[in-house]
Specification:
globular, Alpha-Beta Plaits, alpha+beta, 2 domains, 6-stranded antiparallel sheet, single chain, about 140 residues, about 40% strand, 4 helices, 6 strands
């Protein structure tokens, strides 16, 4: 089976870098019934940034507003799902590199049952070209 690669919108939320804050934010979304396809969190300027990829952007935005969360504007990320194999992620990144597209961030994970997933970020000016290269 080939990889499924989608260009999808994500949003980020910044929050204090303190224990439990991420769980609180995600709990509010859970309580609102929001399904998330991916979450990527990391420290940023003495705070935490949570990049959130919702399954339904409209429902997510409504839930975030009701929960008092301040969201970024939507930004593009590539969501990859595929059969796990040796060098799957390397092959994906090589395609972008060969096209002269710099990857600004990437996260890959084996998800079990012989599958893997990844998030790949490129600069906004490279999103269309990357989508064409990846078939997204």
């Amino acid at each position: 089976m080939t990889d499924t690669i989608r260009r999808i919108d994500y949003y980020y939320v910044t929050a204090p870098d303190k224990p439990g804050v991420g769980a609180e934010i995600l709990g509010k979304l859970r309580d609102a019934g929001v399904n998330l396809l991916a979450v990527h969190a990391f420290p940023s300027a003495r705070r935490s940034q949570l990049d959130v990829v919702p399954a339904d952007a409209v429902a997510f935005q409504a839930a975030a507003k009701a929960a008092g969360l301040k969201l970024s504007k939507p930004k593009a990320v590539f969501l990859v799902e595929g059969d796990d194999r040796v060098a799957a992620f390397a092959q994906l990144l090589s395609r972008l590199g060969a096209a002269g597209i710099n990857v600004t961030a990437a996260t890959g994970v084996r998800s079990g049952m012989g599958r893997y997933g990844a998030l790949v970020w490129v600069k906004p000016g490279d999103v269309r070209k990357a989508a064409a290269v990846l078939g997204a």
